[in-house]
């Protein structure tokens, strides 16, 4: 294989000059660039990083399929994942998935080479799971789980829903509503299950509580909130399946002149960075660990890539973060 030393000798320049032409050509004279590029072409030289990827059959690329950025959870996790991957010397191809574009994203991912895939777009019974396994490259889900119950890192979503609901009940609230997302997604299904379990353990029939399922868009959350306001008996507390939903509810309360927690208690799940902001101070349930779930997942993915782990099945513990949006009834 031709080396940069061969190129330098052929062009009559130093190896350092060849490196500068490839990496910082603005520092090299045009005539020198021309000589070096001619040598590269005639010798069919492939720069080291590309050559290495061909020999090792690696691309140096990690594919990330994140959720939409209107959800601050994905802002936090995408940042953590990209920073970690870059620190490890890899590049990241990032896709932001929604209901409307997931099929085209999956097609692009399946057609593009990468060393590994990390994603938070998987439905509980998604066929893409089996296609990814057939690719033969490492992949991991974060904040989602497939019915096959492997290749995932998640929080204990059932426990998170339980803790959030039990906290509201412990404050004396009995008129409670739930605003969640589609149950085709394991995260929403399991958090709702925790909500139901907490109600049952406190002797409350879940069927008597107003329940709203949304597509998690702002318009659909607004629709749910407007339906809440039209109820004959308004709830005193709102349990939201995510901090993103809870924060949007806080905004809608302000728009309508309601005071939180006086008029409505609001609690979320995820403990995103935005929830900690003093102007929001959202009561929520999140990871016991101080690490981002995205950080934990990308660490585990690299363990699989380096053959230190086989199949990841990890559920992280959660705890309550009481702040200003809940109080005793």
TrEMBL record:
Q: Which UniProt keywords apply?
A: DNA-binding, Transcription, Transcription regulation
> Which residues does the UniProt record annotate as the domain HTH cro/C1-type?
5-46
Keyword check for Transcription regulation: yes
Q: Which residues form the HTH lacI-type domain?
A: 2-56
Note the SMART domains from the entry: HTH_LACI
Q: Which residues form the signal peptide?
A: none
Q: In terms of domain of life, where is this protein from?
A: Bacteria
Q: Which residues form a coiled coil?
A: none
Q: Does the keyword DNA repair apply?
A: no
**Name the UniProt record assigns to this protein:** LacI family transcriptional regulator
Q: Which organism is it from?
A: Lysinibacillus xylanilyticus
